[in-house]
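Progress note, sequence design subtask.
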């Protein structure tokens, strides 16, 4: 099993576009399909189950106190960047989520301005949130979601030097984190969850008619956008819009499969 498995992608055989885009489906398939969650909130446990430590969420003061700032200064800038990128690659190819988070922590320690570290850590934290949500332990799920969303927001501020493709993928993953949060909390969706769905809608609509890339890449982005809009409008109870984008996503997929069968 490769970690971090993600809750963000269409099935990975649909659009294979590299390791960074292949981490997302296994968790989503089971979590997004479940509609039988109990209708009551789980009680807060006095001894919360352990969750993966995420050093990227430390404050500047905490990072300095634990020595990370001092350790970082021991390396030249070029070495810090290289080691951070290497740690990210190892994180996306790690065997477990625990190992993956350790790699993303290391990437952050070498270079706190590496957006890929926040991206990967957000995926791991979101996976934990969905796992606890499936067990109806919504207290911990909500805490993990808060961390996940914060990590994506922090990474979003560091996208100036990444490629256009990566930027789009990051933003659509960020939108998916909002959608998955709402799905986990669907029986208790409050104004905060609805606001997140509206934020996801604003992001995704930017790319529904994507013309930024080559035709195949544009079609992949538009298919994913249609799928996400279907989930957003279904969660908001806008059934007519949901049905429209569901049909669009199915049509894009059939078109892609016809083309790939002909190759």
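Output:
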């Amino acid at each position: 099993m490769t970690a971090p498995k993600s809750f963000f992608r269409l099935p990975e055989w649909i659009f294979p576009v590299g390791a960074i885009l292949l981490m997302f489906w296994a968790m989503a398939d089971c979590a997004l399909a479940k509609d039988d969650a109990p209708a009551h909130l789980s009680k807060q446990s006095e001894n919360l189950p352990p969750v993966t430590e995420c050093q990227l969420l430390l404050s500047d003061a905490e990072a300095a106190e634990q020595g990370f700032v001092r350790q970082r200064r021991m390396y030249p800038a070029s070495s810090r960047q290289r080691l951070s990128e290497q740690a990210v690659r190892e994180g996306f190819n790690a065997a477990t989520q625990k190992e993956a988070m350790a790699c993303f922590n290391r990437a952050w320690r070498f270079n706190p301005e590496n957006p890929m570290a926040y991206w990967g850590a957000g995926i791991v934290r979101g996976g934990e949130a969905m796992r606890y949500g499936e067990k109806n332990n919504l207290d911990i799920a909500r805490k993990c979601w808060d961390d996940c969303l914060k990590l994506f927001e922090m990474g979003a501020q560091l996208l100036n030097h990444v490629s256009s493709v990566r930027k789009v993928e990051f933003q659509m993953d960020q939108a998916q984190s909002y959608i998955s949060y709402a799905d986990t909390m669907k029986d208790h969706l409050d104004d905060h969850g609805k606001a997140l769905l509206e934020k996801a809608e604003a992001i995704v609509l930017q790319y529904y008619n994507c013309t930024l890339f080559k035709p195949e890449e544009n079609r992949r982005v538009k298919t994913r956008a249609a799928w996400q809009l279907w989930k957003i409008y279904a969660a908001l109870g806008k059934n007519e819009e949901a049905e429209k984008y569901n049909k669009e996503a199915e049509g894009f997929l059939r078109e892609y499969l016809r083309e790939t069968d002909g190759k």
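The chain has two domains: 1-15+22-31+51-161, 163-263. Work on this subtask will continue into the next period as scheduled.
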